[in-house]
Amino acid sequence: MKNFKIDIVSDVMCPWCVVGYKNLETALGQLKDEMSADITWHPFELNPDMPVEGQDLNEHLMQKYNLTEEQGDENRKNMFEAGKRAGFTFNFDGKRIMINSFDLHRLLMWAREEGKQTELKLAFFEAHFTDLKYLNQEDALLDVVESVGLDKEEARNILHSDKYVQAVRQEQNNFKQMGITSVPTFIINDKYALTGGQPSDSFIQALKQISEEEAKQDA
């Protein structure tokens, strides 16, 4: 059984990050008799300068990418379909906001130590993109934390301290120095990288190819 180390550089605010992960999950499910993976999530902020109150998402995307309303509608349609294929529901019916995700990354670093990082990351994705919860509101954020079995009061204490601030900044800088400027980026066994919301077939092909290459190197 081949076991991969997979590091995912990602932001909760990035829809392609959840699409890519769900497709990776599907690929690993199809390869479960041959391969497994230890997955670690790492921080990336799409909008580090975003104020705490956030911004209407449609307005933000139109400003950031100079999209027309029609292009915005087309983007949402494509995103919905990509999510559907990956097994994830994007909800475009209510008011959605883009927020500063730094505190989410601090909680995810804590969740890594508690062995619940992937559970929390997926819960954040669902809260933000499906349930349209405002994760810049402390109570909403802590409810998500509690939903995966993590201690709500400990999470609150983290939010009201500077715990994990330096750790998150350090990881962000490390990956920036490695040349990572877009997410999701999937780093496999510290030497191979895939970027973007790849389909599951691409992950299957890549994992098999890496497995074969490493088998040759070990021979």
From TrEMBL:
SUPFAM superfamilies linked to this entry: Thioredoxin-like (SSF52833)
Cited InterPro entries: DSBA-like_thioredoxin_dom, Thioredoxin-like_sf
Entries under Pfam families matching the protein: DSBA
Gene3D superfamilies attached to this UniProt entry: Glutaredoxin
CDD domains according to UniProt: DsbA_FrnE (cd03024)
Domain DSBA-like thioredoxin: 6-207
PANTHER family: GLUTATHIONE S-TRANSFERASE KAPPA (PTHR13887), THIOREDOXIN SUPERFAMILY PROTEIN (PTHR13887:SF41)
Protein known as: DsbA family oxidoreductase
